[in-house]
Structures are given as structure tokens and as C-alpha cells.
Design a protein that fits this description.
- This protein is of the alpha/beta class and 546 residues long.
- The protein contains 19 helices and 14 strands.
- It has a five-stranded parallel sheet with strand order 2-1-3-4-5, with helices on both faces. The protein has a five-stranded parallel sheet with strand order 11-10-12-13-14, with helices on both faces. A two-stranded antiparallel ribbon has the order 6-7.
- Helix 5 links the parallel strand 4 and strand 5.
Length: 546
């Protein structure tokens, strides 16, 4: 009997905020095996959880889900999350789990002692639980009520289960865990099997999964560059500045005296880190200052999902006006993988076809019905998926010619970047970004980041980008201002776990990349430094002797 699996149908994802984090940390022997995946993150709001649930289900191959959500929203003290927002977010998660055929249990939010939470909207806990009790079955989820074991007759948290009236102690977590496990291991609990589906239905399901990542907070409409962050919104708790970028304060056009101004342009890997100081630009600034460049100021102009054409337009339309001393441009992966999943037209921003289709649908002045169509969410998905299918057929999606066109558009953008660096006399370090494709020692998590067909496509395409970058580095167009750098294999021999998808890497790896880029920046600044005639003559003589 000891060899009988606890959950025969597959791994269960234990998902939530501080309640789940404490619950799983208190029993590591139960939540460290392949059948149980602990994914509670203290302090997360329901909105944070919505953004990561689908990717967590896909990453861990979850067949079951246990969810407790909303407690940290209610007890955060800022009152930002209303009952309507919390329940809407939970409804979205339950819908996502049902769409992915994941068996789901949703637990009630554990009670608190009202005397220990004066001034907080603790009544909202009961309101959310009442909503869950009524609505969870409509999403195919089972509601687990933890109040009978955790609450007194008045509804307060039992004193024996908490040391402060708010957080569950070991006894409280053990009581909740026992009730939870009884529900999850009850007789008759089986995997939910997806019905047979056609090839088109499978593609629509995949599209629906990726459609969930559309987010106006990180991709807000912005002139000339398609989108940037939404001013005032946040990326994992870090707010975007007034221009939609991840800086503590917006850049000013007039550069302060003594400042060495370095601008970093890139995609989501540039804004990842969870804190400004831990992002790639934040780390580069710290390294440069520690290395003696006291006036170094590194600004973050990363944009989620930005391709190289967008980055080049950002530099041309805005950034050259800020008198930068140097630019780092990190690109490559988004130009390759986004046409596979989103807008299939080579070189187009990832959501361009959605913007076009919606604008045409509602504002076609030749169609009087356009502005009368309310367009439900399901109809919206159908409309956009239909346009995606049409465009894929039009461009020959996944054909050899289409693959070559994707690479060609990247090369054209890179050539524009070389010319831009020369015309504006700004040193540019163009970086082909690291990827999991070139890492030799993969962990179990790294081996499962994507399908074999997708990785084979990326491998073919990245090989072409590596060859192109090598040609640029050897030819060195505008050598005083432009540097081509291939970092695709910087983690080739690293044995530790590094990537959590095909292109995003962890903090230690981010430090390695930042150190290398800081070195390249010092070299670019040195090459761009004005020289006296005597110095130029010495440099010329030295090159002839070599």
C-alpha cells in the first residue's frame, strides 16, 4: 500500500497566496514529490495568480488544482481589491482550469480573529466564501469548506490555530491539511479527460491559452512602437513610469552634468527581476559604478514582447533625443517565436493582427452594423482566431519560405540599427540574447519547457541568427559605433538550473549576463571617446604593426 500513488491521475498543483505557501512549507515530505507541486506565493493578489495559473498548469503538467485565493488581497491593508474583483479573478482561474480539463478543488478562505484585524475588511472573507459555495460547482470545481474545523461558533479563527489571530500556526495548518487531503483522496476522484478534438480544435485551444496572456498593463498602445507598459500599472509589483517603462523616475531630455547615460532596450527579459535593482539594467548600473564609472546611469527601456523592429523604432523616434552615451539592444527570441504563436507575418508586432481586426470590426464606416455589435468574449475569440487562420494561410505559416522571411525581417531591422548608430553617433551593442537551446546540461524542468516541434523550429532559426551575428561581428560595420555580440550560448556549460522557459532565466544567470554586458559597454564607450590627432596617429601605427 505504501507504493500506491496518492493521486493516481497525475500531479496536483497547490496554488495560492500565503495560506498555500505556509500549508505546503509545513509538510515538505508531502509537497516535494512529483505528484504535488507547491506554488503558493506569499503576498500575491488574485490578479497576480490569474496571470500565472495557465503557465503553471502547462509547466508542471498538472491534472489537479487546489486553490485558496483572496486572503492576502483582503488583509493587505490597502483595500485595493474589491469583492467583485476578487470573485472575478477566481472565476477566471476556475474557468481556465475547466478549459484545460484540470480537476479543481477550491477552498474557503480561512477565518481570522476580528479583534486582531481592526480596520481591515475581514467581512469580505465571508462574502468571498459565500460566493465560492454558490458558484464553484458551475465551473466543475468542488468547494472545500474549512470553517467547520478552523472557526469558532462566532466565525472567528480558533485561538489554538493561530498565535496572532491572523496567520495559521502549525496546528492550524495541520487541521486544514487533513481536511484538504480527505477531499482530494476521496473515493471516486479521477482525472478529467479531454474529449477527442480535431486538428483545428487543438489549434484553437492552444490559441485560447496564449490569448490569456494579452495584458494591457504590460502592452499598452504607444505611438510608433505599437505598445509599452501602461503608466502607473505594475510588472510583478514594480510600477511603470509615466512613459510606460520600468524606471524609478522617467528619463529627462537634458542629461545632468557628469552622467554617463546608458539605455537598455529589449523585451521581457529586460524588465524581469521583481525589483528595479534586480533587472538586467539595474545590475549593469551597479557593476559599472563599482568598477569606477561613478556617473553611470542605466535606464530600462524593455517592453514586453517587443521585436527588433519595434526596438529600432523606439530608439529612432524617442531615445536618440535623450543624448545617450551608449545603447544596449537585446533581441532575437521574440522575433522568432512570436510569429509561430501570434501574428504570423514576419517582422510584425505580436498583437498587430488583433488590433487591425478589432478596429476594422467596430469602425468600418461602410458597414452600418459595425458599431451595433456588442461582441461577447466568445465571439471576440472566434473573430480573432478566424483572422489568425486567414493570415497563416496567406503567409505560408511554418513553410521553409516563411521561416526564411522571419529571419530576413530580423536582419533588416539589425541593418537599420547599424545605420542608426552611425547616423546619430551613438555606440550600440546589439546582443543576440541567451536561449535554452544552447544549454548542454538541462534540468528536468528545463527539458519540458516546450514541444519538440517548436524547439526544432527555434533551433533552425537561431542557427541562422547566430551566423548572421557572426558576420556582423566580423565585418564590423561602423566599428566606432556598432558592436554585434552573440550571447546565445553564454550558459552552454552551466550545470545549474537556469531557464524557466525558452528565454527567461533566473537571478544568478541575470548577474552573469549583466557582468558581460557591463564589460562590453566599457569597451564601446572607450571606442567612441574623441581622440586627439596624436592619439589617432598612435592608434593607426599600432594597427599597422599588428
Amino acid at each position: 500500500m505504501s507504493d500506491k500513488p496518492l493521486f493516481p491521475f497525475g500531479p496536483i498543483l497547490f496554488f495560492g497566496d500565503s495560506v498555500t505557501a505556509g500549508l505546503t512549507a509545513g509538510a515538505p515530505q508531502l509537497f516535494s514529490g512529483p505528484q504535488t507541486v507547491a506554488r503558493g506565493i506569499a503576498g500575491q493578489s488574485t490578479r497576480d495568480m490569474v496571470r500565472r495559473l495557465r503557465s503553471d498548469i502547462a509547466l508542471y503538467g498538472a491534472r489537479g488544482l487546489h486553490l485558496i485565493a483572496g486572503r492576502d488581497d483582503i488583509l493587505s491593508g490597502d483595500g485595493a481589491s474589491s469583492l467583485e474583483q476578487i470573485t472575478a479573478d477566481i472565476a477566471t482561474m476556475l474557468q481556465d482550469a475547466r478549459d484545460l480539463y484540470v480537476r479543481t478543488w477550491v477552498g474557503s478562505i480561512p477565518p481570522v480573529d476580528p479583534a486582531a484585524t481592526a480596520g481591515l475588511p475581514v467581512a469580505r472573507i465571508g462574502q468571498v466564501n459565500a460566493w465560492l459555495r454558490e458558484h464553484a460547482p458551475a465551473y466543475g470545481a468542488q468547494f472545500i469548506d474549512y470553517d467547520p474545523v478552523l472557526a469558532t461558533e462566532t466565525g472567528a479563527l480558533r485561538p489554538a490555530f493561530s498565535d496572532d489571530g491572523v496567520r495559521l500556526n502549525a496546528a492550524g495548518e495541520a487541521a486544514l491539511r487533513a481536511t484538504m487531503m480527505a477531499a482530494l483522496t476521496a473515493p471516486g476522484v479521477e482525472q478529467i479527460w479531454a474529449p477527442p478534438e480535431s486538428e483545428d480544435a487543438a489549434r484553437r485551444r492552444k490559441f485560447l491559452h496564449h490569448f490569456g496572456y494579452l495584458d494591457s498593463n504590460t502592452r499598452y498602445p504607444s505611438p510608433f512602437i505599437q505598445f509599452a507598459g501602461k503608466p502607473g500599472a505594475s510588472h510583478y509589483g514594480v510600477p511603470f513610469d509615466a512613459n510606460g517603462f520600468l524606471n524609478a523616475a522617467p528619463i529627462v531630455e537634458r542629461k545632468p552634468a557628469g552622467e554617463t547615460r546608458i539605455l537598455v532596450v529589449g523585451d521581457s527579459t529586460t524588465i524581469d527581476g521583481g525589483d528595479i535593482a534586480k533587472t538586467l539594467p539595474g545590475r549593469i548600473e551597479r557593476i559599472l559604478r563599482a568598477d569606477g564609472l561613478a556617473g553611470a546611469k542605466v535606464y530600462n527601456f524593455g517592453v514586453m514582447s517587443s521585436c527588433l523592429t519595434q526596438m529600432t523604432h523606439l530608439i529612432w523616434s524617442r531615445l536618440v533625443n535623450y543624448s545617450p552615451d551608449a545603447l544596449i539592444v537585446v533581441s532575437g527570441s521574440t522575433d522568432l517565436f512570436q510569429p509561430w504563436t501570434y501574428d504570423p507575418r514576419p517582422g510584425y508586432p505580436y498583437n498587430a493582427f488583433i488590433t487591425e481586426r478589432l478596429y476594422d470590426h467596430f469602425f468600418d464606416t461602410h458597414d452600418p452594423r459595425a458599431r451595433e455589435d456588442g461582441l461577447s468574449y466568445d465571439a471576440l475569440i472566434t473573430l480573432i482566431y478566424g483572422e489568425l487562420k486567414r493570415l497563416r494561410a496567406e503567409v505560408g505559416w511554418q513553410s521553409p519560405g516563411w521561416e526564411d522571411a522571419v529571419v530576413h525581417q530580423y536582419e533588416r531591422a539589425a541593418h537599420r540599427l547599424t545605420k542608426l548608430s552611425h547616423d546619430h553617433r551613438v555606440p550600440v551593442v546589439s546582443v543576440l540574447q541567451p536561449t535554452i537551446l544552447r544549454k548542454r546540461h538541462l534540468t528536468e524542468v528545463e527539458r519540458g519547457v516546450a514541444s519538440g516541434a517548436f524547439l526544432a523550429y527555434l533551433d533552425r532559426q537561431y542557427t541562422k541568427l547566430e551566423a548572421f551575428t557572426a558576420q556582423l561581428a566580423a565585418r564590423r560595420p561602423y566599428r566606432r559605433t556598432f558592436t554585434a555580440l552573440d550571447l546565445s550560448g553564454i550558459f552552454r556549460d552551466r550545470e545549474e538550473g537556469t531557464f524557466y522557459d525558452i528565454v527567461h532565466y533566473d537571478d544568478p544567470a541575470r548577474e552573469i549576463v549583466a557582468a558581460r554586458l557591463a564589460t562590453e559597454i566599457r569597451g564601446a564607450l572607450e571606442r567612441a571617446r574623441p581622440r586627439t590627432p596624436f592619439a589617432r596617429a598612435l592608434r593607426l601605427l599600432g594597427s599597422r604593426r599588428r
